[in-house]
Amino acid sequence: MTNPVGGVGTSAPAAATSTATSSVDRADQMGKDTFLQLLVAQMKYQDPSNPTSTTEFMSQTATFTQVEKLEEIATQNAALLSLQRSLSAGALVGHAVSWTAEDGSTRTGTVSSVRFGGDEPQAVVDGQEVPLGRLTEISVPASS
């Protein structure tokens, strides 16, 4: 279950934050390998006197192709999400931010740079790395 995040400028109590992931691995989902194993087993153990119809075989082949294409789309979406996170993180440089620290306190500062390399980009604020998921407020710095 996720915790709602308060809007900008609200005084909602600090809540623990977590980072989003770009892939989901569930044990109850069948992948293309499982589908292919089932198809091969069906062909191997079919009754020679009553073989699978060509229509049924083509339907199963089309389903296998759909599974492959959906897997490709999921991979492309994960790459797109990663790129979007990177672009969003880069746009934070020079902006004033507030975030919830590990001890639950709210801290503020200006983003001097952004570091990439882990699961989530890190905003560098006053020499401290802050995961983007911990940011609670972003504002444009006052013009000079």
UniProtKB/TrEMBL annotation:
Q: What InterPro entries does the record point to?
A: FlgD
Q: Which domain of life is it from?
A: Bacteria
The Gene Ontology biological process annotation of the record reads: bacterial-type flagellum organization
Task: Supply the alphabetized keyword list.
Answer: Bacterial flagellum biogenesis, Cell projection, Cilium, Flagellum
The biased composition feature labelled Low complexity covers 10-24
Q: Where is this region: Disordered?
A: 1-28
Q: Which family does it belong to?
A: Belongs to the FlgD family.
Q: What is this protein called?
A: Flagellar basal-body rod modification protein FlgD
